[in-house]
Design goal:
CATH superfamily of one domain: Gcn5-related N-acetyltransferase (GNAT)
Distance between the termini: 23 Å
Radius of gyration: 16 Å
Largest sheet: 8 strands, mixed
Number of helices: 5
Number of strands: 8
Bound molecules: coenzyme A
Strand content: 25-35%
Structural class: alpha+beta
Helix content: 25-40%
Order of helices and strands: EEHHHEEEHEHEE
CATH architecture of one domain: 3-Layer(aba) Sandwich
Strand order of the largest sheet: 1-2-3-4-5-6-8-7
């Protein structure tokens, strides 16, 4: 069997529940302004571990190093979401940890693009791809307790809620309780 990591990171294509096309691809230099706007948004900073001092240099580091690094290390993949015009509307990481059959996800939608169904479609596409092409058995979603938008995205993507992980997330020097949900191989129909 060929190893998927021996090939370039693929481009994934899907469609939102409103019929809008969505492309998941590696970021390029043209995405930098969108990444910067998304990563300095107050809701992003509230619910994710994006650095508080995010700036243009960090956006370039994301494009040149962080995003391609997951695939280069054979530990999953980071994608940006592009709408039908090719514009940046968000980003999603699928990260494989110590167990090669288990990955977790991290995501954010650009503030101007929220509520269009982009992330629920992207999460489903990345999850199915990870199971079918990377051989994953389980994809985990975690969010701080109270992140209702993220939880709804996971539910819409077909994830099953499993409970609360007490002190389950590190957040800017503190521990936070986390919701956890999963999508497993057997959920593919
Ligand atoms: C959470 C987030 C990713 C949602 O992205 P999105 O692209 O707007 O999500 P979708 O458009 O696919 O919405 C999916 C569902 O969630 C619902 N939803 C989205 N944001 C919501 C919110 N803040 N509260 C309640 N429901 C919300 C939508 O209404 C939709 O449900 P519906 O189809 O039944 O109406 C986005 O708000 C975001 O980036 N937040 C800041 C970063 C973050 O929290 N990341 C996740 C960390 S775990």
């Amino acid at each position: 069997m060929t190893d998927p990591y021996d090939r370039p990171q693929p481009v994934l294509r899907t469609t939102t529940d409103r019929g809008e096309p969505l492309t998941l691809r590696l970021p390029d230099a043209g995405d930098a302004p969108g990444i910067l706007a998304a990563c300095t948004d107050p809701e992003t900073l509230r619910w994710t571990t994006v650095p508080l001092d995010y700036d243009h240099e960090r956006a370039l580091g994301f494009i040149d190093e962080y995003a391609p690094g997951w695939w280069q290390r054979r530990q999953g993949a980071a994608f940006v979401l592009a709408d039908g015009d090719g514009g940046y509307v968000g980003q999603i990481d699928l990260r494989v940890g110590g167990d090669p059959e288990v990955a977790d996800v991290g995501f954010l939608t650009a503030p101007h693009a929220r509520g269009h169904g982009y992330m629920s479609a992207a999460l489903r596409a990345v999850t199915e791809w990870g199971i079918r092409e990377l051989g994953l058995s389980r994809v985990e979603w975690k969010a701080h307790v109270g992140n209702e938008g993220s939880r709804r995205v996971a539910e819409k993507a077909g994830f099953t809620y499993e409970g609360v992980l007490r002190n389950g997330c590190a957040h800017r020097g503190e521990r936070r309780d986390a919701w956890i949900a999963s999508f497993v191989r057997e959920d593919l129909s």
